[in-house]
Batch of 3 targets.
Target 1
Amino acid sequence: MTNSRMQAVQSPIIPVVGELIRNSPGTISLGQGVVSYSPPPEAVELLPQFLSDPANNLYKAVEGIPPLLNALTEKLSRFNGIDINNNNCIVVTAGSNMAFVNAILAITSPGDEIILNTPYYFNHEMAIAMAGCRAVLVETDENYQLRPEAISQAITSRTRAVVTISPNNPTGVVYSEDLLRHVNQVCADYGIYHISDEAYEYFTYDGVKHVSPASFAGNSEYTISLYSLSKAYGFASWRIGYMVIPKHLLVAIKKVQDTILICPPVVSQYAALGALQAKPEYLQEKIDAIAQVRQIVIDYLNQLQGLCTITPANGAFYFFLKVHTNMDAFELVKHLIQDYKVAVIPGTTFGIENGCYLRVAYGALQKDTVTEGIDRLVRGLKTIVGT
């Protein structure tokens, strides 16, 4: 057997935890970052239009079908404050994980470095390793906010980009506009890219507003923004995301996309076009429901004061707990599944090796399931760690 580049890449944890859940029937999962709701009816209503045109069975444009690009242009202007002009453009992808891989392959050579803020999103770290590059890890502060000075100090002649995720996976923290501006300016000063992953852009609470770095004036030359329909529109398996890139990267990114995908699934692009026509109430109702679930989670987690440090988080649908124990995080996760029938994800997956951390996801839960699930988690932690 030959050694392959994939040996250096971590195995995704979600399937491993999924297997533990299957072996422990009745387990409530606070593991995977998905929502419980379905796409808006408008998504499905557009499918007959896709089916009615036989030419839709053929390959379409690498960067996406024009009607979807137009709808995304309008959305970016309205929601993100990003104007599509001569300096930038949109590429539709099969989910925003793919957009990230496109970006990394387009801007790096093997041996280059990409700065990730820890805790990182594991698929980002995996993609960097697959590309033969090195993830340089910079710790966030005690509230999981960015540390621009530390980021500056980590930059070398091989650095090609700094990655930020806001609202953040796995911490749920929303980065402040000041910090995002600071990091964006650091990237400008060093002539590197700022890759901004905004998959959770709609999921903010308590009056906190989402900010897109690409909306800052004069930075379209080096800012790469990644978006997804998976979360907000319940589109996880339809696989539609998109990226806003500097125009000078389009040729390189089309090469990557044409090789891996040719074009995003056109049936899914039609569904996405329909989803974007949903009334604003669709997103508002869904986010409001998740906000109520979030409040229940907070109320329960407050019972763990002393056993865990719970950093306040105003975004996405995660909390990242620091458990005050010497136990290995994955051992604790196995214990919780087998004995308490509740699943969470260990912090080691997100690059946090020192200490025991757990990511708690609440996006897929309804009010009734969240009460039961979070109650099991609190009871389990009290018993396992509190004794």
Target 2
Amino acid sequence: MKSKTLRGWYAVHRWTSLICTINLLLLCVTGLLLIFHHEIDDLLGQGHQSAAVAAGTPRPTLQQLVDKTLAANPGTAMKSLSFFGEDGDHFVGVRIGPPGVASLREGTSVFYNADSGDKHALGGDETFTGFILKLHVNLFLGFPGQLFIGVVGLVFVLSMVSGIVLYGPFMRKLAFGLVRFGRQWRIVQADLHNLSAIAVMVWALVVGLTGAFLSLSPLIIGVWQKTELADLIRTLPAAAPAALIAPDRAVQVAAEAVPGKDLAYVFYPGSEYATARHYMVVLRGHTELEKRVFNIAVVDAETGALADRRGMPWYMQVLLLSAPFHFGDYAGMPLKILWALFTVLTTLATVTGLIIWMKRSRNAVRQIDAAEAAIAGAALKEQA
């Protein structure tokens, strides 16, 4: 590689690394906590565990949970149902909001034990890890903060790519991964920086790209709404139903249309992810990765007939699959530990890189001061 090209790549690596350093450290710390969010929630008593349900207890219908929620919150309308849980505990989230408002953000959720119908006190945003997730995703700045984090992710990816380009020329005369202990501390720091960075190279690129992609989720979902959902609205009857069938009936129709799947969501007619007339029933697979692969059954909310059945477009599937790869929560505790180790190595590479730059900057300042002092001394001698 020519020296001019090498200097160019070095400048790219230095400045992209410096630009994202502080935010990257924050993302590493919060990301490390989020890897173990289930375990932290359980430790703090903020998980979704519930009391055992006595044998023979009748399971409440979805309509009963909806009626209970609306009765306790007069003046609201149904927006959606969400289904979650593991290890035998199953919960239903009932989302309500102002009548006539399509946005799901304009509302609140009430959670129930799906087996007993008992109200469940905690929602995701009220937990410690829910707080950490907001900090990690958007710095509590909403969509602008989310876009900013996405830009940081892209800058980080560019920093990693430039670091990979530089690693070969700088280490061509040394053994791969060598740390020269016993040399000057600055050399040891540089070797530790290079080693930790190259060790997490592939992982960091995956996490950086998936994180940047996830930060664009509102825009990607907007594209889906403007294309796939708009196509449904154009091709299916749009008249609002005279009366709604129970969501239990819509779920039954969807399960028959897409067998062997679990429930994920039921979006009510008039909400932002459904048409004005239809339930949008979203189903998913059983394994950790298949849980992010969604199928949609569109059910007429007045007649109960299956109106359409679709999969998600490729860009939505990529978005949904980015989350488990980003947080490492699709293969149990061993993968979580590996993700945590890579996060620690990324933090080490970031810290050592910052220390190297700071020391180099101080050395440069001292060299400039010495040169100016020498020039001033020479001028005084000439005057004398």
Target 3
Amino acid sequence: MSQPLSFQLIDTHAGGDVSRIVIGGIAPLPGASVREQMHYLRDDADGLRRLLLEEPYGIPEMSVDLIVPATDPAAAAGYIIMEVMGYPIYSGSNTLCTATAVLESGIVPKQEGRQRFKLESPAGLVQIEARVENGVVEAITCEGLPSYIDTYRASLQVPGIGEVTYSVAYSGGFYALVDATELGFSLVREEERALADCAHRIVEALQAERGFSHYSLGDVGPLPFLHFMGPVERVADDFYRSRSTTYVHPGVICRSTTGTGTSARLALMHHEGRIKPGDKLETVSLRETRFVGEFTATHQEGHQAVVENTITGKSYVLARSEIVVNCDDPMVECEGLRQVLTQG
């Protein structure tokens, strides 16, 4: 029998989306940046992602965030995001959870009141502001990636659905944005299975028809996300609210509205001239959880009007655990895993 291996986790959730934060037991990864280390995991050592998102340890609806030493001296720590669709370079809910975990684990010492620090994601440095009250992390505000509209109100024939009108935003990944009401949805929890089926059909059709290229990153792979948009309600002069649901291909409806989904909505509202810097949008999920996105500024990148934004939410610690990996277990696939786990 082989010697069992182990590593340490803090399980968290933000808006209902569970992020499993790996805080110890992982060997140093090759790569001069967090982005290069992400590429190593993606291309040569995908076992950690698969272990924690598949039976018997996890389910595809979860995410994984691996804490790594920062390569930028301005950052307190680095992190690599892993989801069912692969390795996104950024995620709002995962950043909220990772920021909470580094505070709760002592990687970044907690300070009462408001404190600011930076994390290094595969997309680059991310400014974090934490609000701590009586030793509890009550809220995290993180920078959303600069977001923009790539395609506005195009149409697509989708098998089993018919003609679908969609827009496409980039906010850390490419998002198809569709009007939930036009597709017959009210965005309530009872519709979750039907939403997943509808989104799967649309994304499959869209991937088959075309690809997308970022203005500076180039080809970042097939479009993996779809965001259902409910009607927008104006709550105050500078505050809006909308029911929202994010789908991750293949097959996952997120519990939260997601940070990148909220950033994509801000980009669309700016494109339509419906918001100004300083305005906020609260997105409300199928489970009534909420994130608040703030449109902070805009700038031009070539032909793209890029929206700068922040996302605010709260993450909760669910568990602290040691995962024991026995490679003799027929339910466990250790290919692509042994090389990243420390021995002993």
